[in-house]
Structure formats: C-alpha cells, structure tokens
Amino acid sequence: MDAEPEVAVLRYGHRPGRDDRMTTHVGLTARALGADRVVFPDNAGQSKETVEDITGRFGGPFGVETTDALNGFIRSWEGVVVHLTMYGERVQDVQEEVRAVHREEPVLVVVGGEKVPFEVYEAAEFNVGVTNQPHSEVAGLAVFLDRLFDGRELDREWSDADQTVIPMETGKRVVDPSEAESAADADGDS
C-alpha cells in the first residue's frame, strides 16, 4: 500500500503564558489523530518539548518543529493549504473535495491562535469551518482530521513507544509495549 501524502499542522500564533496549554493540545491532537507533524511558532518551545516527550513515551512517528516565519512556511508549502476558521465553508460540504486533493498532495492544516491576518485566508485553498460557531481550535482540528481520514486514524498503530495504554471499561492500565498483547488478552479473559 502506498503511503498517503503528508498532513502537517501549523499553529498560527502563540501567546506565551496565555496559549501554552492550547498550543500543546493542538500538537497532541495532531499527533493522536493522524497528522505526520506539527509546526509551532518559535516562541512555543515548551509546547514543542511536551509533544516530543509524549511522542517518545507513547510512540510515533511524529515530527515537531518550530519556525519564526509562519507566513513564509505557508507560502513555501508544496501542497494544499487548509485554514480552519469559524468563517469558512462548512466541513461537511468540502470534506470529499479535501480528501480527494489529499490523495494526490500534501495538506497543511493551519490552526489559528491569536487573530489570523487576512493573508492566511487568501493563501488557503480551503477556509473550513467546523459548525461556524465559536469553539476551541482543538475541537475544530479533531473534527477536521477525523473527517479527512474518515476515521482510519483511530486504528493507527504506534511504533517505538515506551508505554502502551490498554483499553479498559474502567480503570487505567499502562504497560511496556512488549507486555501489551498479553495484558490485553488477560483483561479480555476476566
């Protein structure tokens, strides 16, 4: 099976102290829901470190980087740019077209932090709204990625993990990956 073209997420803007948790969650959501990498503004170093730590512990592959040139990153992207904004076209109206484009080209998903300049709207091939209502950019990213991958990201296998979560009805169980299959079998027997 041929690999799909890359999906990268660009966090556009970061206000240290105010956006730390939200920026980190953009990265964690991108990782967990199928993107190949996240790009943070260069002043989001703590978010970068946290996402790299989670990737090291729970597996990858997943890339994390920073840039001091957000607009330049968008302009130089060789693929399609999707900007998530409450003012965009409804995700349910464009999801098939975006999926079709992604079969052929890499996708850059731009997720705003602070006010996004009009230049980003103009640079995007798709300005996409999830509900066209105010809500969390993390929620918008999660819904968009799920629509883009049509749910396939939920069955992703992770490599090079130090820890694996065993799905359970109640409780919490985290084991070494070498123990995961026998732990899951044992939980299924009870």
Automatic annotation (TrEMBL):
Indicate which residues the UniProt annotation says bind S-adenosyl-L-methionine. L84, G112, G113, E114, K115, V116
As for subcellular location, the record says: Cytoplasm
Under the heading Pfam families, the entry gives:
Trm56
Query: Which controlled-vocabulary keywords does the entry list?
Result: Cytoplasm, Methyltransferase, S-adenosyl-L-methionine, Transferase, tRNA processing
Is Methyltransferase one of the keywords UniProt gives this record?
yes
What spans are recorded as compositionally biased (Acidic residues)?
Answer: 178-190
Main EC class the enzyme belongs to = transferase
Q: Which GO terms describe its molecular function?
A: tRNA (cytidine(56)-2'-O)-methyltransferase activity
Biological process per Gene Ontology, one example term? tRNA nucleoside ribose methylation
**Transport among the record's keywords?**
no
Origin organism is Halogeometricum pallidum JCM 14848
The protein's name is tRNA (cytidine(56)-2'-O)-methyltransferase
Catalyzed reactions per annotation? cytidine(56) in tRNA + S-adenosyl-L-methionine = 2'-O-methylcytidine(56) in tRNA + S-adenosyl-L-homocysteine + H(+)
Q: What does this protein do?
A: Specifically catalyzes the AdoMet-dependent 2'-O-ribose methylation of cytidine at position 56 in tRNAs.
